[in-house]
Each structure stands twice: as structure tokens, then as C-alpha cells.
Amino acid sequence: QLNLSNLVESTRELLSPLAAKKSIELHSDVPAQAPALLDGGQIRQVLMNLVMNAVQAMERPGHIWLRLRERAGHWALEVEDQGSGIAAEHLPRIFEPFFTTKGVGEGTGLGLSIVQGIVQEHGGTIEVDSALGRGSRFTVLLPIEAET
User: E-assigned strands of the chain?
Assistant: First the structure.
């Protein structure tokens, strides 16, 4: 059992200095308590990967939001950026292992595949809303109660 809000806040605090080097501010909007039966280390890895992707997608100063809300028996954990967005033709492939739109040496194409695997192991799902020039929002839905 962990408080997902604390995990989101501590991850934001950990990554804020890195984001600040690109003049990006990390913001959070989380409830005081968000109890969940989850592997904190793995969910932190999911969150860190999504935030780092958001930082890399932003070519200019801006903001990234981390939000946590209750939605239909799940915690909805959102990472929203003001980055370059994902082209519609790439959206169906972003969770495929080794798929990347980054240049050589900038990424392996494994991050989102790993994120999806961890989320699915926790009985959750991940949604993506993105458009070129508008940014992206990844929403991780994790069960509030452990699956039996």
C-alpha cells in the first residue's frame, strides 16, 4: 500500500532540476491521499519515463503538468506537456518495442514499451491524446484496489 500522491510529488521534485535546465517547469495537481496497492518502484519508473519523454519533446520553455484524479475505480495519472506532439501516423506504433522518432543515439524506442508493460502488469491501461504543435497527454489508469 502506498500513497500515489506522495510518489507523484517526490518524482516531480526529483526531476524538476533537470527540467529547469531547459526552462521547463513541472507542476502537480494531486489529492492529499491516493491510496493504492502498487509497486512504487515500477510506477515511479513509468512516471519518470513519461516526464523525461515530455521534457525531450519540448523544444522551447514551457510547462509539464502531473495530475492525479479518481476515475471509475481507477487512479488516472496524467502527464501533459506543451511539446511538439506526436504525428497521427506514429500514434498506433508508439508502444512498439524499438519504435522511435528520435535521432540516432537519442533513444532506444523501448521506453514506452516498458511503460505499457508495467501498467498492464498492474491491471491498468494507458491512453494517449496528442497532436502536432499542441503537445501530448498520457493518462495511466491504475486500479485503486488490487485485482484478486
Answer: 2-3, 24-29, 35-36, 62-71, 74-81, 125-131, 135-143
